[in-house]
């Protein structure tokens, strides 16, 4: 996922970002060795976001040799401190087998933990796994519950998907009114796919 991990990180824990402003600026400027030195200082004091950044840099080989093994160590340190983005990355690693072996059960476990902490992406992942039956028996009803949870907490993509499920009756009874409600909610926030869906409905 390359630089997306850094973008993803910037969406969480603004106070921690402020504290690590110099290290984050160093990454943005390509001064990876300086950034790593700063992040390690914060990590030694138990900062889960610093652990997450270090893990990401090991995954991408920024200032260090690429090492999934070392990245996993720091991701686990971050996740153990309730940092949801680290849990999401761990879930993706296990789901995609990026550490050499696919483990859907571990992936689902990490996504579920992150979802409980309010992570939209994790809720979407859980919904996808239940709807599509990834590693478990398909259960669209449970899947849609996760999608609805993500939608209610602000995910525009979830709102779009939820609108479609109501229109198509996937995991819920067909309800055009609810379908249009969620589609319009996403569209009003400028979510392109929802705008396109509404235009196609007319």
TrEMBL record:
Molecular function (Gene Ontology), one example: beta-lactamase activity
Keywords: Hydrolase, Signal
One matching Pfam family: Sel1
Enzyme Commission number(s) from the entry: 3.5.2.6
Highest taxon listed in the record's lineage: Bacteria
Class of enzymatic activity (EC top level): hydrolase
Coiled coil: none
Signal peptide: 1-18
Name the UniProt record assigns to this protein: Putative Beta-lactamase
